[in-house]
Design goal:
The protein is mostly helical. Helix content is 80%, strand content 3%. It is a multi-pass membrane protein.
């Protein structure tokens, strides 16, 4: 006797993924809408306190996104681990290490720019993924999800690099995360950030190449699906 559909492992997996993508979509949509309303209400003044207004929700969304690495390891999501790992660690380091730890950086315009770029990408990505899980596909949305990142992702990396650059004087002044080790050794965190700054662009090249190959494969298959229908 066949089990009910809701007991099938694939059904449970798709239900879980749909709920996950929906939560992320709602979170990022709230952030983007909040930023838009605040900008039209308060103008440039809203950009200065962007982090204070929406930083908590942004940190929550980015923390939850770490589950995607677990999804890939368990085979729940059919993605490659390394490119996703690089994208997530970029955001976690910039958001939690660079921005959250330095109150002076939180007031910079670059924080608002970063949040706009991140949310634009994620709203489209999670919408596409959410609909794909339940078997709904729109050619325009597929094209947008596979194309929007091409101009925005490099701009994200540039904004992340600029945020690191603006944070360096504060890490040097306050000594945040710098520490002394035994045997007259020490970790000077601004040097760590400068090294990471170089690695950021190396990671961008790898991730961009992977996403471009993925885009080519998806857009090649999409017309074939439409013909079968």
């Amino acid at each position: 006797m066949a089990r009910p559909a809701w007991l099938q492992p694939r059904y449970r997996k798709n239900t879980y993924l749909f709920i996950y993508y929906l939560i992320q979509f709602c979170g990022h949509s709230w952030i983007f809408t909040n930023m838009t309303v605040r900008f039209f209400s308060f103008g440039e003044d809203s950009m200065v306190d962007t982090f204070y207004a929406i930083g908590l929700v942004m940190r929550l969304c980015q923390s939850i996104s770490l589950l995607e690495l677990l999804h890939i390891c368990l085979g729940i999501e059919p993605n490659h681990l390394l490119p996703r790992f690089l994208q997530l660690t970029e955001r976690i380091i910039i958001l939690f290490v660079v921005i959250t730890s330095q109150e002076e950086v939180q007031e910079k315009y670059v924080v608002c720019v970063l949040f706009i770029f991140w949310n634009l990408l994620d709203m489209v990505r999670y919408t596409y993924s959410m609909l794909s899980v339940i078997g709904i596909s729109y050619a325009v949305l597929t094209w947008l999800s596979q194309t929007l990142w091409m101009p925005i992702y490099p701009l994200c990396v540039l904004a992340e690099a600029f945020a690191i650059y603006q944070s360096l004087p504060y890490f040097e002044s306050f000594g945040t995360y710098s520490t002394k080790l035994p045997f007259d050794l020490s970790i000077y965190f601004p040097y760590v950030l400068k090294i990471y700054l170089m690695m950021l662009f190396i990671g961008m090249y790898y991730t961009y190449s992977h996403l471009y190959s993925e885009r080519r494969d998806v857009l090649r298959v999409c017309p074939m699906k439409k013909k079968k229908m």
